[in-house]
Automatic annotation (TrEMBL):
Protein name (record): Rrf2 family transcriptional regulator
Record-annotated membrane-spanning stretches: none
Gene3D superfamilies named among the record's database cross-references: Winged helix-like DNA-binding domain superfamily/Winged helix DNA-binding domain (1.10.10.10)
Superkingdom of the source species: Bacteria
Record lineage: Bacteria, Bacillati, Bacillota, Bacilli, Bacillales
Length: 125
């Protein structure tokens, strides 16, 4: 199992924004430099975070990105689902819901999701 680089960048972006606790929005160029990633690539990630209401964006000379109100309750799973989408990590294909392997895999996935749901970016500050 492996998450994409986009998920890593999203998690680190959220942590960075939470850590600096800026009074004004942070530009994508600053964020990209801090994360050592292309501004174009990071913009696509930020668009998803804005669409889900985790981050707000402001345009103009003093524009940029900042955490939305209530960001303290955003979980790792919320961020991962925003970037990766919501689907099962394992599919037993033609064996049906009674497959014993499927049951073990789904149970394990549920436990992982439960842990990621409990963990918040705010826990890291």
């Amino acid at each position: 199992m492996k998450f994409t680089k986009a998920t890593s960048h999203a998690l680190h972006t959220m942590l960075y924004l939470a850590t600096i606790n800026a009074n004004k929005p942070v530009g994508v160029q600053v964020l990209a430099k801090q994360l050592n990633v292309s501004p174009t690539y990071l913009s696509k990630i930020l668009t998803k975070l804005v669409k889900e209401g985790m981050v707000t964006s402001a345009s103009g000379a003093n524009g940029g990105y900042s955490l939305s109100n209530g960001w303290e309750s955003i979980s790792f799973l919320d961020i991962i689902d925003t970037i990766e989408g919501r689907s099962s990590l394992f599919d037993c294909y033609d064996h049906g819901p009674d497959c014993p392997i499927q049951k073990v895999m789904l149970s394990s996935e549920e436990k992982m999701e439960e842990e990621l749901r409990k963990r918040k970016i705010s826990d890291l500050i």
